[in-house]
Design a protein that fits this description.
The structure holds two protein chains of two kinds. By secondary structure, chain A is mainly β. Chain A is built from two helices and ten strands; from the N terminus they run βββββαβββββα. By secondary structure, chain B is an alpha/beta fold.
């Protein structure tokens, strides 16, 4: 069992290991970055730092709601990246993933309270986004 | 125990240590000290320093510290030079007096120790080629007084300084009418001064002296000089001038290039210098100086300067800097090992401008050349012009902004809109289109910012100008660092984020990427349409022809006169067509045509003459010289040019 931040993308549930999340903030005012990959929603002022915000639904290739509500901030202080999600429901204990997934962006999935939760491999996502950069 | 008791204990111990120090020093002088003597001395001084520090006996601490510094050097080299024993004994005496309560800071002894330390460092550093290499700053800074701080922390400090600017603006806004009150105004003034000091202090933490990167240059200059049979003295001044760490780290290469140019192109060989009435040994000066918020790095040589015709060209085309930083330009008569044509001042200029700086070149034929690199003292703070397009603010480094014009009318060349500015054409782009952003159509006469970077000039249209501002540039983060069009982003007074545009990227325009893509697509279907050499002494006509041909998919090389054209032809066997003007300096188009035809290897090379001289007689002369086609500039039109080029290349 370990602590996770549970979040929602459309009808699906995902979780970030709590140690890779530094905070959760409102989407706020996002400035578009022309020329950036489509998964980049924009950049945001986070206490004087520039936070690039990615659309987690686009990164994972799932269908989310029409507009994202919250931003999960991941990564170390000076390399922070925001992931916009439809909602953050809970911080709770989750068992180790039992279900295997094929996505390089997921550690696996786990069943909890009748819901299937995909556990995001934050490092894998960051590496993937870094390589996808043109 | 109270302070008095602590002080008593410290005095006892310090005196004991000082006795020990004197004994050891005398043993060292007599040559009967133990192997560990230097370590013992160091430890004794260190203990005194530590105790003095705790009790805030600052004079004792400083003196013990200086003593320790000298010993640290001696310990490194393993010997204490005998001439140091006397001053160290004097130091011990001064320390004893201070420990006993003497309030004299013993400045003379301190100064003497500082001098000794400096001379020890001088010996420790490897001798430079001509003795002008600066001391490395690592050894100049006493290690025990240096705190190592991760660069991120310093950057965070600058971030916060930037935040303070915003806070101040919001505060002023919020105060409204109360700004009129004297007391409020006074406090704001105090705040402003404190902020300026804080900013300077934060910036200083990010700077390093130029000396950190120029250590190898004297040697490099000597090598280049001797390889080309020249003698050159490099004189370095202002090596202690500090620059932003990030700028500094990347400056080494461009600076070496400018020096290489000075030696390879500027300085003459000893016989040439004798003949010109100069001393045989050439002189190259590298000088750095802070001027306001800029650092000026000057490379001055007393060589031959640029040829008069280049100066004349500079007079016609704007500035010597523009002429010499055209891509691939070089003043060398021949390509030497060290200063080839491919890598030029254009790269240096592009580099300097990337950091919001400027490059300036002046030259006097026969007397020498001066290259000035002006760089911002701090990279994080940048003077920018703020503009708006499609409701989003963008920042353009002010150093690259040549002027701002109102766009009333544009013309089109090959579907590329151009602006006619003082009888010269300038490609003009919509900022939104350049970046790939969505934006509504422009109002009647939108402003356009003329950006000059990397030797190119373009006009960029936007909705409105927001004004000049000093902004803190923040990185977009690793995942967006690949977007080379942005230097970073800045948070504005109203909380909005402005993307800071890289002028170099803007000046290139979208054409290159788009064009090369379309060429690549064409190449899948049909073979390479060929390479054309455009020979033309007018910059405008040359670039016009280049852009027309490149847009049609041709690869284009250029030359400014017949002689240069022949050199190009020698080096580049891929050239399949010569497009030449008639009237040019050095060697005109007719002479060039005859010279090419006289060469059996090139007798088949298609030649097309494009000239202002359109009479039948001129045409006859051109065709007689061996040209395949003749076109008058008067009747010049793109379609006819492309048709002729296509026909000749297909032959």
């Amino acid at each position: 069992m370990s602590m996770h931040v549970r979040l929602r993308l459309g009808d699906e549930e995902y979780a970030f290991p709590v140690e890779s999340v530094s905070e959760v903030v409102a989407v706020g005012a996002l400035s578009p970055v022309p020329g950036a990959p489509p998964s980049v929603l924009g950049i945001r002022n986070l206490r004087g730092r520039i936070l690039p915000v990615f659309d987690l639904a686009a990164v994972l290739g799932v269908r989310g709601d029409a507009g994202r509500m919250r931003v999960v901030v991941a990564g170390e202080e000076h390399r922070s990246v925001g992931f916009a999600v439809d909602g953050v429901s809970d911080v709770c204990e989750l068992a180790e993933p039992t279900e295997e997934t094929h996505s390089p962006y997921l550690r696996g999935a786990v069943l909890a309270e009748g819901a299937l939760i995909g556990v995001v491999d934050v490092e894998g996502v960051l590496v993937g986004l870094g390589e996808g950069e043109s | 125990m109270d302070d008095e008791e602590f002080l008593g204990i410290f005095r006892d111990e310090a005196n004991e240590r000082l006795d020990n120090i004197v004994d050891t020093l005398l043993q060292l002088e007599r040559g009967n000290a133990g192997e560990d003597a230097l370590n013992v001395l160091f430890r004794d001084a260190h203990t005194i320093k530590g105790g003095a520090g705790m009790l805030q006996l600052d004079d004792v601490r400083s003196l013990a510290h200086a003593f320790e510094d000298v010993l640290a050097h001696a310990r490194e080299s393993g010997v204490l030079p005998p001439e140091l024993v006397d001053p160290l004994l004097r130091t011990a005496d001064a320390l004893r007096a201070q420990v006993a309560g003497d309030t004299d800071p013993a400045t003379d002894v301190l100064d003497e120790l500082k001098e000794i330390r400096a001379s020890l460092e001088g010996k420790a550093s490897p001798p430079a080629a001509n003795g002008s290499a600066p001391r490395s700053p690592q050894s100049a800074a006493p290690a025990s007084r240096t705190v190592r701080v991760p660069t991120e922390k310093v950057d965070r400090l600058l971030d916060l300084v930037g935040e303070t600017v915003l806070h101040r603006r919001r505060l002023e806004y919020g105060l409204g009418d109360r700004l009129e009150e004297q007391s409020v105004n006074d406090e704001l003034d105090v705040g402003g001064r404190l902020f300026d000091e804080l900013k300077d202090a934060a910036i200083q933490m990010r700077t390093l002296p130029l000396a950190t990167i120029i250590g190898h240059l004297p040697r490099a200059v000597r090598d280049i000089a001797s390889a080309s049979g020249k003698e050159v003295d490099l004189v370095v001044g202002g090596a202690e001038t500090e620059l932003d760490r990030v700028i500094l780290e990347s400056l080494s290469e461009p600076l070496a290039h400018v020096l290489r140019n000075a030696v390879a192109h500027g300085i003459e060989t000893p016989p040439e210098r004798r003949q010109a009435g100069k001393v045989e040994i050439g002189r190259v000066e590298l000088h750095a100086e802070q001027r306001g918020r800029l650092v000026e790095i000057t490379v001055r040589d007393d060589g031959r300067g640029v040829p008069r015709e280049v100066l004349a060209e500079a007079g016609r085309e704007g500035s010597l800097t523009d002429v010499l930083t055209r891509p691939g330009y070089s003043t060398a008569d021949e390509v030497t090992e060290f200063a080839g044509r491919g890598v030029g001042l254009d790269a240096v200029r592009a580099h300097v401008e990337t950091y919001g700086g400027q490059l300036e070149i002046e030259s006097e034929p026969g007397r020498g050349t001066v290259v000035v690199l002006r760089l911002p003292l701090a990279l994080a703070l940048l003077d920018v012009l703020l503009v708006e397009r499609g409701d989003a603010p963008f920042a353009i480094p002010l150093a690259s902004v040549a002027e701002v014009v109102a766009v009333e009318d544009t013309h089109a060349l090959e579907e590329q809109p151009v602006l006619v500015l003082r009888e010269r054409t300038l490609p003009v782009f919509d900022l939104a289109e350049l970046l790939g952003a969505d934006a509504p159509p422009f109002a009647q006469t939108p402003p356009a910012v003329v950006i000059s970077s990397g030797g190119r000039r373009v006009a960029v249209m936007c909705d409105r100008l927001l004004g000049e501002e000093e902004v803190v540039v923040k990185p977009l983060g690793e995942l967006l660092a690949g977007l080379r069009r942005y230097l970073g982003a800045s948070i504005l007074g109203d909380g909005r984020i402005a993307l800071v545009l890289d002028p170099l990227h803007l000046a290139v325009g979208p054409g290159h990427a788009a064009r090369s893509r379309s060429v690549a697509l064409v190449q899948d279907a049909v073979p390479d349409p060929g390479k054309v050499l455009v020979v033309e002494d007018s910059f405008t006509v040359r670039e016009l022809q280049r852009s027309i041909l490149e847009a049609a998919g041709y690869r284009v090389e250029t030359a400014r006169d017949g002689r240069e054209a022949l050199e190009r032809l020698d080096r580049d066997p891929e050239i399949g067509l010569l497009l030449t003007d008639v009237e040019m300096p050095e060697m005109d188009g007719l002479e060039l045509t005859r010279a090419v035809r006289a060469d059996p290897e090139r007798s088949e090379l298609p030649i097309m003459i494009v000239t202002t001289r359109g009479s039948d007689e001129d045409r006859r002369q051109g065709l007689e010289a061996g040209a395949d086609a003749y076109m008058a500039k008067r009747s010049f039109d793109q379609q006819a040019l492309l048709e002729s080029v296509g026909r000749l290349l297909a032959r």
